[in-house]
Specification:
Largest sheet: none
Order of helices and strands: H
Helix content: over 70%
Strand content: under 5%
Distance between the termini: 40 Å
Number of strands: 0
Radius of gyration: 14 Å
């Protein structure tokens, strides 16, 4: 939590990547036939 300040610029891109990864994972799960 102490290292939050210097990572503010990269936090946005990281968050976007995380959201994208979650979205792709959800898509993979939904496409799988259960």
């Amino acid at each position: 939590m102490m290292m939050k300040m210097p990572w503010r610029r990269k936090s946005r891109s990281f968050h976007l990547q995380l959201q994208g990864a979650i979205g792709t994972c959800k898509d993979m799960i939904t496409t799988l036939p259960f």
